[in-house]
Amino acid sequence: MSILNGKHIVLGICGGIAAYKSVSLLRLLIKAGAEVQVVITPAGKEFITPVTLSALSQKPVVSEFFTANTGEWHSHVDLGLWADCMVIAPATASTLGKMAHGIADNMLVTTYLSAKSPVFIAPAMDLDMMRHPSTQTNLALLASYGNHIIEPGSGFLASGLEGKGRMEEPENIVKYLEDFFSKAQDLAGHHVLITAGPTYEKIDPVRFIGNYSSGKMGYALAEECASRGAKVTLVSGPVSIKAVNPAITTVHVESAREMLEECRKVFPETDIAIMCAAVADYAPATCSDRKIKREHDDVPVITLVKNPDIAATLGAEKNDSQILVGFALETDNETVNAEQKLYKKNLDMIVLNSMRDNGAGFGVDTNKVSIFKRDSDPMDFPLKTKAQVATDIIDEIVKSL
Ligand code: C5P
């Protein structure tokens, strides 16, 4: 029996050629035992008729806020609460833009904004629309809100062109949902500590030593763990992103010392700790309580002191049942450095990303990693979104539990 049996699924359909594939998707969801409520945009109805969809789903298709002749109100709030998940397939560029920016001018977008459940988005459009910076920015925004983007495939497009933009095949969307729900609870009962982002080491009230870390990888890990049932404590340096899942408690810190202090408070209660933060190795020995002025000809000298190594400190304190995972961001001699850190910091696993790989490292939405464990050969993964990399990392951790 499919894990989707009995699940309440809102299927959102937008106005794109790929809407014809939504019929197969609906059929497969129903076959898997799900109860499906279709919500279609006005443009969607130009591509596929509500009659087909309501016959297959055995429910009236919702498109307008109310039924014109009776005045019956369709509550997007009730629908958002009813859903165990919402799947928007196909998601057009226009609807992605509306969802990303809260333009709630149709039933599909209002339902999305009211949804408390996980949301899966399967974009479909022409390759140029897909790679346009506004589409990419909207997708990145939607992913940062905790939505799951089911990446479109490459191939022959309705426009006659070839490229990325084909909606993922219905069978694979169903598989994606089944994987999501079957994994959903494999971290239930676990408490995961994650560090993320940079640290800021104060020089004076207006200046600091920091780095380019955006926190995206650590936050993606936190969302992945929370969506798989874990309680998560996320100790985060200064970043401009927010955690979405309510199972994540974010503790905001600035310096490495503060980060260590907060980690030590929760570490004894955690069974998994993932050190993803880009911690400054050094901090100014003193912090001036006033802004250092450019009064003299002399150049000020800032004396640095070593910061504590949070991963190594927790490594020395950990017990046998705790799993400690580190990251290594290297520019050269990658494998040797990663392996050395694995043992030196008493880690169970280390995730290596090289600054030499395009699309990996600070700020970007993608990453390319290799995972080193003590008892097995390194595993190399291809370039993926940080959300997908988070899934790979957590899959490996779960195997070690
Ligand atoms: O030694 P290096 O900084 O390359 O090690 C990286 C790993 O150690 C990362 O997991 C990082 O979060 C962690 N680290 C730490 N405290 C430091 C420096 C690094 O926890 N002061």
Which structural class is indicated by helix and strand composition? alpha/beta
Percent of residues in beta strands: 15-25%
Mean pLDDT value: 92
Helix content: 25-40%
Cα(first) to Cα(last) distance is: 27 Å
Q: What is Rg?
A: 24 Å
> How many strands appear in the DSSP assignment?
21
**Taking strands numbered 1, 2, ... along the chain, how are they ordered across the largest sheet?**
12-11-8-13-16-17-19-20
Query: Main β-sheet, in a few words?
Result: 8 strands, mixed
Count of helix runs: 13
Report the bound ligands by name, code or SMILES.
cytidine-5'-monophosphate
Shape: elongated
Poorly predicted sequence stretches spanning 5 or more consecutive residues: none
Structure description:
This protein is of the alpha/beta class and 401 residues long. Helix content is 33%, strand content 24%. The chain has helices spanning 19-31, 50-57, 76-82, 93-101, 107-114, 127-131, 133-144, 170-183, 216-227, 256-266, 310-317, 334-344, 386-400; strands at 8-13, 35-40, 85-91, 119-123, 148-149, 153-156, 162-166, 191-196, 201-204, 207-209, 231-236, 248-252, 272-275, 282-284, 304-306, 323-330, 349-354, 366-367, 369-373, 376-380, 384-385. The strands form 6 sheets. It has an 8-stranded mixed β-sheet, sandwiched between helices. Strands 2-1-3-4-5 form a 5-stranded parallel β-sheet, with helices on both faces. A two-stranded antiparallel ribbon has the order 6-7. Strand 1 (8-13), helix 1 and strand 2 (35-40) form a beta-alpha-beta unit. Helix 1 packs parallel to helix 2 and helix 9 packs across helix 13. It is elongated. Residues 195, 256, 275-277, 279, 281, 307, 309-311, 326-328, 341 line the site of cytidine-5'-monophosphate.
